[in-house]
Amino acid sequence: MRRPHPRGELSAALLELLDGPPGHRAPPGGAAAAAADPYGDDLHLALCLCYELHYHGLDGVPDAWEWDPDLLRFRAALERRFLEQLRADVPPGDDVTAALRRVLAEPGDGGGVSGFLQDEGGTWHLREYAVHRSLYQLKEADPHLWAVPRLTGRAKAGLVAVEYDEFGAGRADRVHSRLYADLMRDLGLDDTYGHYADHVPGTTLATVNVMSLFGLHRALRGSLVGHFAVLEITSSPASRRLVRALERLGAGPAAVRFYAEHVEADAVHEQVVRHEVVEDLVRREPGLAGDVVFGIRATQWLEDRFADAVLGAWRSGGSSLRVPLPAV
Known about the structure:
The chain is mainly alpha-helical.
């Protein structure tokens, strides 16, 4: 991933640190992270950079940085600031069935960003939305794989079954991240992994970072399962609206294909995740019920915050990106 430009003290110090080998200087102290805006651009860009060392890596940064103890302490301080604020903002609970019922209760005609795109969005709105989602979709399903070695029984089998589909069921041309790259090219966008990191705000980065936060910590495996459940439950109806938006605006077949694939696949995945993964996990480890609920509610909270920011910008006639896209 190409290194983006810094957005404040934390990300600037981190990018400078990564210019050299591990151990050549100390990362910022925990006090700087504790004082940062927990949802701000600076903290979330820094956290994104730390996490990318576990995925595709960063251009020019030695792989040895991935497990550098000092960098991990710095990352832990960023995570602590984010997670503590998220726990303060998300109401607690341990009724998994009720939490899932609320996710399932989406009105048939939908709403939010996908509803806007379906009913009134223009091509430039669609292109911006594709840019926002590219930070995750170009590595779609990768963060959730962290749950596999931490589950057993039906929960493990169900998760792997869903992930198998996400990774193309053995066909490289059907891997969902590949299909999203095709969508981006169809919309005249650059499909290079992480190309638009400078364009997206902290509200977008937070929706991606939370997956890695949950995934990289075994103690948060219940929250990762809750997050996964929300994605699979909400994907099919939202994808149906996005297919309508793309067809209405005359997008090409590759763009339509990505969301059409998710309409059918995720309708099945939703059932598997609810009845195999979530139910079995909570049955085996009832003490994780509160973590599953937290994962569900935290995901919804961050997605609602993302939607409010995007729709607020669009309805005022402006771009939702930090760096607007050139007109096509």
